[in-house]
Write a structure and sequence with these properties.
Elements lengths: L2 E3 L2 E3 L44 E5 L4 H12 L6 E5 L28 H8 L5 E2 L4 E4 L4 E4 L2 H10 L2 H4 L11 H16 L1 H6 L4 H22 L12 H17 L14 H11 L10 H11 L26
Parallel strand pairs: 3-4
Antiparallel strand pairs: 1-2, 1-5, 3-6, 6-7
Helix pairs in contact: 1-3, 1-8, 5-7, 5-8, 7-9, 8-9
The chain binds glutathione.
Keywords: Oxidoreductase
InterPro entries: Glutathione-S-Trfase_C-like, Glutathione-S-Trfase_C_sf, Glutathione_S-Trfase, Glutathione_S-Trfase_N, GST_Omega-like_C, GST_Omega/GSH, Thioredoxin-like_sf
Protein name: Glutathione S-transferase family protein
């Protein structure tokens, strides 16, 4: 685990000393947008037109943010248009690395050893954390974006003319509602589990822990009355919650000490999680080997023995029973 400083790799764990033991996630820096006609998006420069076989996605199968992008690639039928490289689940002294074991693919574009080499190909002077996902432009040879929230919105609409898939997970009429749900779920659940697990003081841990379970109670309440979070159709808000829920019982309960309850113990969330897992194309994006191996083996500050637990045994293919 580390970061680039003026293009040089430095091995450093997150600094929580300056924030009273609290973990603060660095904002993504590279935020151009692919658009249907190549015009500029909400941020960044123009020039990234939606085209087949032009863009490449670097992901970790363990990472919940990268997982969102793989789900949208599947839901929107982009598998043949956008190629993918999968990093090793083991993120040690040199950060995300490439190998070709256990469903990792190696770096299909440059055959690099480490993801930080892809960041410095884009900018030899880059300073910042080296995170997944990364969306790379094979034509301009540069990074389009390293922000998953933006990448899923590009996938949601920019390639529609090429795929004829017009499914819309961020429909205009629901945008305020989805934004409101994201504002609850991102800090308290998606990042809340990290704030809990990476806290280095009791107070910071307890604050984050309470945020996680309070927000889970809120979404449980919504889902006990309504099929999905925003409405009775699936939206971006559901997929953003899904990637945390699917990791919760396997990793966050134990490794991140989010152990008040499991997702299996919430009646609505339990069925909802299974239902989303069973949506066509989604189960193939979930890799429990990478998920468990990454967290338990890579975060040696939390789990110095690097022993990866065997359980739990959960059958996500069992009947979801959702009919609210
Ligand atoms: N804002 C980014 C966050 C991505 C992120 O933090 N990814 C984690 C993996 S789950 C990472 O690569 N961490 C490496 C590090 O912080 O050094 C996004 O959502 O795309």
């Amino acid at each position: 685990m580390g970061l680039l400083v003026n293009g040089q790799w430095q091995d450093k764990w997150y600094d929580t000393d300056s924030s009273n033991g609290k973990f603060e996630r660095e904002a993504a820096q590279l935020r151009h947008w692919i658009t249907a006609d190549g015009s500029a998006g909400i941020t960044g420069e123009a020039g990234f037109k939606a085209q087949a076989n032009r863009y490449h996605l670097y992901v970790s199968l363990a990472c919940p943010w990268a997982h969102r992008t793989l789900i949208f690639r599947a839901l929107k039928g982009l598998q043949d248009l956008i190629t993918v490289s999968v990093v090793s689940p083991d993120m040690l002294d040199s950060g995300w690395a490439f190998d070709t074991q256990n469903h990792s693919t190696g770096d299909a574009l440059f055959n690099s050893n480490y993801l930080h080499q892809v960041y410095t190909k884009n900018n030899p002077e880059y300073s910042g954390r080296v995170t997944v996902p990364v969306l790379w432009d094979k034509k301009l040879n540069k990074i389009v974006s390293n922000e998953s929230a933006d990448i899923i919105r590009m996938f949601n609409s920019a390639f529609n003319e090429l795929t004829s898939n017009n499914d819309d997970y961020y429909p205009e009429a629901l945008q305020p509602k989805i934004d409101e749900l994201n504002a609850l779920i991102y800090p308290n659940i998606n990042n809340g589990v990290y704030r809990t697990g990476f806290a280095t003081t009791q107070d910071a841990y307890e604050e984050a822990f309470n945020d996680v379970f309070k927000a889970l109670d809120t979404v449980e309440g919504i889902l006990s009355k309504q099929r999905y979070l925003a409405t009775n159709e699936l939206t971006e808000a559901d997929w953003r919650l899904f990637t945390t829920l699917i990791r919760f019982d396997s990793v966050y309960v134990g490794h991140f000490k989010c152990n008040l309850r499991t997702i299996e113990s919430y009646p609505a969330l339990n069925g909802y999680l299974r239902e989303l897992y069973q949506v066509k194309g989604v189960a193939e994006t979930v890799d429990f080997y990478h998920i468990k191996r990454h967290y338990y083996f890579s975060h040696t500050m939390i789990n110095p023995t690097q022993v990866v637990p065997n359980g739990p045994s959960v059958d996500y293919l069992s009947d979801h029973g959702r009919n609210v």
